[in-house]
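Sample intake sheet
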Amino acid sequence: MDKIFHFLLRPRELRTIFLFLIIASVVIVSVSLFREYSHDDLRVIPGYDGGSRTCDLFSGRWVFDNLSYPLYSEKECSFVFEEVACETFGRKDTTYQNWRWQPNGCDLPRFNATAMLEKLRNKRLVFVGDSLNRNQWVSMVCLLQSIIPPSQKSMQWHNKGSLVAFHATEYNASIEFYWSPLLVESNCDDPVKHRDQERIIRAGSIKKHAKHWTGADVVIFNTYLWWRKTDMKIIVKREDGVLEETPMMQSFQLILKTWAKWLEHHVDRQKTQLFFMTLSPTHFWADEWGGLADENCYNETEPIKKEGHWGRGSDVEMMGAVDEAIGKLKEKGVEVRVINMTQLSEYRKDGHPSIHRKFWVSLTEAQLVDPKSYADCIHWCVPGVPDAWNELLYAYMFL
């Protein structure tokens, strides 16, 4: 017994046992904290880059929830643009407002307008791109303005309407949208007069646009829709002034290089958060979800239930080109985080304005007798699908 007692009391072994007990205690506490943290936070961290994340926010299903959604009322948001104000323009079935995106295995954080405004205090958040990014910007403005007194919020137009800015006075925060559908200079840069089948881009020129988002604290980019028209001519204007018609993907890759080069040399990597929204799907062909070939999103009132549904209007090659450009930027120390909202939006054939919106061109008699012929199956009603995009953005910004 004395030998055993003597053995246990030897300093070397005592240190070993003591060290083991400390390590064991740390492991037990860490596991406990990890379990608690993963339940509250880690489960909502996206695994887009394939890292050791615990939840992919982009994989899941839509759940009907008329108790918690919508997050705001269309009628109470005076900043809704008429292209997406579906209820105002006669849409009676408002269940499109009651669907909540539910990721597999975790919960998407509920958007908190107060927390977001605090995050943006003394800052600028700028959406840059086409009308789908403007769609998301309108959603963001409606989400935020609901808690701001009328005297403390305003909207201003700059640069002939290309830049629209919502201001939250108390927070000194600016939530802006800048019209730049092809990212680089083009003949589509006018926010009103841009309906030209022959689109000319200056593939190497982005300064004209970039000066409007330079110095912003958060920038969200997109560009897909304006490249997807099969009958569209894309003409690249070379530095020597010569015009060359080029294939869509080649032009798209050229402008991504210009965009990435600008970010590499001009973005404050310590200050600015950068995001890129993936492709927003369309629902022009009802045969994709079991409908008739000559029908579309017109009169659709429920999401597509088939898991993994993918429409033929969504271009994987284009999304891959963006991933490649962002990957190269990451190697150079510039982080652009991707909000992959394509798959979750693919399910929402019911979420488009269809005929319930303001149309800026006169409809023909033939269109009026066949409503599906002019249904907008591109943009999204608000409240609706773009709110989920902003909930995803919210989750990323608070990581």
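Comment: The mean pLDDT is 86. The chain is about 30% helix and 15% strand.
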